[in-house]
Amino acid sequence: xxxxxxxxxxxxxxxxxxxxxxxxxxxxxxxxxxxxxxxxxxxxxxxxxxxxxxxxxxxxxxxxxxxxxxxxxxxxxxxxxxxxxxxxxxxxxxxxxxxxxxxxxxxxxxxxxxxxxxxxxxxxxxxxxxxxxxxxxxxxxxxxxxxxxxxxxxxxxxxxxxxxxxxxxxxxxxxxxxxxxxxxxxxxxxxxxxxxxxxxxxx
Length: 203
Hints:
The chain has 203 residues and is of the alpha/beta class. The protein is built from 4 helices and 11 strands; from the N terminus they run ββαβααβαβββββββ. Strands 1, 2, 3, 4, 5, 6, 7, 8, 9, 10 and 11 form an 11-stranded mixed β-sheet that branches. The two termini are 30 Å apart. The model has no long low-confidence stretch (mean pLDDT 92).
């Protein structure tokens, strides 16, 4: 099993503090531009390259864009480079087209969800059973489903409005809660995303 970084198009953080060692860095289309802005060297670049201006550079590196008329999105092509048992962090995909965002979430039915997902405005952290997080004072915190068809129940410690056996599903999410302590604890019966909302300059 390996732990990887997948970089896709859409708004990403202006800075990305790499605290982990990644086995592979997989870029989808303009995710290549984002990786270069972070001074990262991609392991592989996939996509139809319709969102990047570095086509000639990519061609010199041996990458050829696939057809624009395809069934898979560029993000799915990137996830297809992972083995089923692999884990990954995801960068990008923020504040773009709604259909693109929903399509990314739809991929989590067929592929593993990311351990962390970093966009321009949010950090999404995968919660599986239990997690303790050190957070900034009064940061806005939301809890959303990883897969809309699943229901999980959650209990929290350290939030302004504590949740007790609260349902997280497509019809029930917890939005814009706040941390009242430096460390918060989330216990769930399944998988969900803890969304830390914070704005910063984009790449």
